[in-house]
Amino acid sequence: MTNAVHALPDNSRRQFLKATTFGVAGAALGVRPGVAAPKTMSIMHENSFIKTYDEYFQKTLIPAYEQLTGVKIKYELVSVGGLQTRVTTVAETGSGPDMTLNFFNWPFLYEEKYVDVGDVAEEVGKKSGGWHDAAKEAVIVNGKWKAIPFGNVGQLMNWRTDWFKEAGYDKFPDTWDELLEAGIKLNAKGHPFGFELGHGFGDNHGWLYPLLWSYGGREVEPDGKTVVIDSAETARAVDFARTFFQKTMLEDVLGWTDPNNNKAYLSGQISCTNNAESILWAAKRDFPEIAKATDQSLNPKGPGGQRFHILAPWSHSIFSHTPDQQAAKDFLRWLMEPAQVGGWYASADSYYAPFLHAFDDAPLWHVEPRNIPYRESLATSHLPGWPAPISRASSESVAKYVVVDMFAKACAGKSTKEVIADANTQLKQIYRPA
Amino acid sequence: MSAHSEPIALPATRRRLLPALREWTEREEVFSLLMILPPMAFLIALVGYPFVYGIWLSLENRPVAQPGTFIGLGNFITDFHDPTFWQVVQNTFVYTGVATVLKMVGGLGLALVMNQAFRMKNLVRAVLLLPFIVPTVLSTIAWMWILDPSFSVINWLLVHGGIADRGPSWLGNGSWAMFSLIVVNTWRGLPFYAITLLAGLQTIPLELYEAATIDGAGALDRFRYVTLPLLKPVVFIVTMFSLIFTFSDFQLVYVLTRGGPANATHLFATYAFDIAMSGGQFGLGASVALAMLPPLALLIIALALYLRKA
């Protein structure tokens, strides 16, 4: 077990220490113990891939907050993949839990039903060394903080060091072209690559948007109106993807959804993929031999020397129907104090890369040094639709898999011209003037 | 009126009213109306209202969690210019058409076999219903493993049986993915056809077969001139139901491919869900969902007309 709290030997001493820490932190914070706060409040979360993460909230944070303020927090867990439907229902009906976890661009989607939490965010940022820029990209909507950023579930290159070594590579290739070269050699040795090209939620976006960006291709200009997908840069990225697919991968990847690359990697069928830290995490638990021969690296650079990553941010918002918004803000302020949020982050190693600079060199990064690239990737991470600000149009583009399918169709055999023309038609429809 | 007469007058009125009410409710048209009211209210609340609301949504630019603005047919015009929408139309027709025919032929075959006398007939009939009873999401997860790119049991058999170097990419290749979905849908829907047709078969009087045999009809002739004509109404009804279910299928696609690869298996329902839920565009999503109504209605009307003529 990796977090400091769990490493402590004496149970009662541990609880005493925790209570004291939280008490002091709470007092310093100015949490209003017993000031007409509601008796219970609820926050929705999706079941975490990492069990200790949910447990830390339930067994450590909830009792600590109750002890401090008398307010009991209900942690409502939704099964994986079901949170957005639930948030939609709550936002539409204006009833249900007080707070929720957000993924991706949800602070934008549900903006009108979320409370402005700028005061809390600024305060938390000031106390913990400031926010990473990437965090702001995901939660500031029309100048207002619609959520408190939490962490990023980065998507990086996961690769087999032993097989790469056999093919003559001691370190991960620095550019897409070099990666293609390595892939050809590894495929010849029976170790193909496996990058998702199907309709999953994350592992497809995780490499296809960064690939497009690093080749200089963009969906739309920063004005959020002018569609510029039909460019020589996009064409080069598409041509590269086709070759990359044909020469290094199996046809199966076109139909993959998010669990497939994990399974293929952990069963030793592929030598490289793009994924979150979950592969290494699961390998350490179930396949120690594979874990030993696994490393994680930043996405390769494009021809212009730039590399990019997808931003997959987690954040917390307060619904506007919440009767006591101040009490919810107090809770989030308390939650994001280093003592609390630090323990929560650490319960999952660095799976949720903290958006607060105070944690840039926190012990959680040293538990597994192979995770450090996830921290470094934050500076070059963006949401789909970048460089335009998040908008309804960018959500629609993601929901329609415009970019993913542009690449997938090319890999399945359609011409570059044709797939770009399709994407261009779709994007012009999507980014139509209101 | 005296004070004494009042207590007598009231029961008298009641005595007159109660039988009148009873008589009124026992009139056939009133009684049927009363009986039909609760299900009607239920249908209006749970089917009618969402349906009308769906139509209203499709005419609005209605982002999630925001008030909508009326845009008339704007969403349908957007769909009309969306290449993926047309692919979805094509996919849905191929999926529904092929799966329905397969289910009809397979179901009829199964029903004919089940109609014979053999040992453990009842057990076999019960087992036959399994695919229909098991929740779709669960059985589809089993199929996910059967068709899994890395661990497909079919491919394992193909490779280890020396038939292929490596099996087809069941869900990775657009055509194979559609084929796989049709197979799974057929597997799931077959029992519905088989059991309904079996019930139809059992209503055909044996005397007709005996008479046909005496007239010199062979097995094929008996099927063609006795079984098929008498089974026709049941076949049409069951086909109508099947068309509706298959046309609006969601779970199977959502679990197996989520519409991929490259939209090769997106159907109306899955595409509408993605746009409305992930994309937060309720209006546009509703318009995609509603677009399946006219072709579906036409199919049903055509079938109903044919049935009436027959």
Summarize the structure in short.
Chain A has 21 helices and 13 strands. With 434 residues, chain A is α/β, with parallel strands linked by helices.
Secondary structure: number of strands of chain A: 13
Question: Can you tell me the number of structural domains of chain A?
Answer: 2
CATH architecture term of the largest domain in chain A: 3-Layer(aba) Sandwich
State the fourth-level CATH superfamily of the largest domain in chain B: MetI-like
Describe the structure.
The complex is a heterodimer of chains A (434) and B (310). Chain A is α/β, with parallel strands linked by helices and 434 residues long. Chain A has 2 domains: 4-153 and 311-373, D-Maltodextrin-Binding Protein, domain 2 (3-Layer(aba) Sandwich); 156-310 and 391-430, Periplasmic binding protein-like II (D-Maltodextrin-Binding Protein, domain 2). Chain A is 47% helix and 12% strand. Chain A contains 21 helices and 13 strands. Chain A has helices spanning 4-7, 11-29, 51-69, 83-93, 106-109, 118-127, 133-139, 161-166, 176-188, 205-214, 232-248, 258-266, 278-286, 288-292, 325-335, 338-346, 364-367, 372-376, 392-399, 402-411, 416-430, and strands at 40-46, 72-78, 99-103, 140-141, 144-145, 148-152, 156-160, 272-275, 294-297, 309-310, 313-318, 353-354, 381-382. In chain A, strands 2-1-3-11-6-12 form a 6-stranded mixed sheet. In chain A, helix 3 (51-69) links the parallel strand 1 and strand 2 (72-78). The termini of chain A are far apart. The model of chain A is unreliable at 1-17 and 19-35 (pLDDT under 50). Chain B is mostly helical. Chain B folds into 2 domains: 15-58, no CATH class; 74-309, MetI-like fold, CATH 1.10.3720. Chain B is built from 15 helices and 2 strands. Chain B has a two-stranded antiparallel sheet with strand order 1-2. In chain B, a hairpin with a 7-residue loop joins strand 1 (60-61) and strand 2 (69-70). Chain B is flat and about 95 Å long. Residues 1-5 of chain B have low confidence and may be disordered. The A-B interface holds A 84-85, 88, 91-92, 109-113, 197-200, 250-257, 260, 263-264, 267, 269, 392, 395-396, 398-401, 405, 408-409, 412, 422, 425-426, 429, 432, 434 and B 61, 63-66, 78, 81-84, 148-151, 169-174, 177, 257-263, 274-275, 277-281, 284.
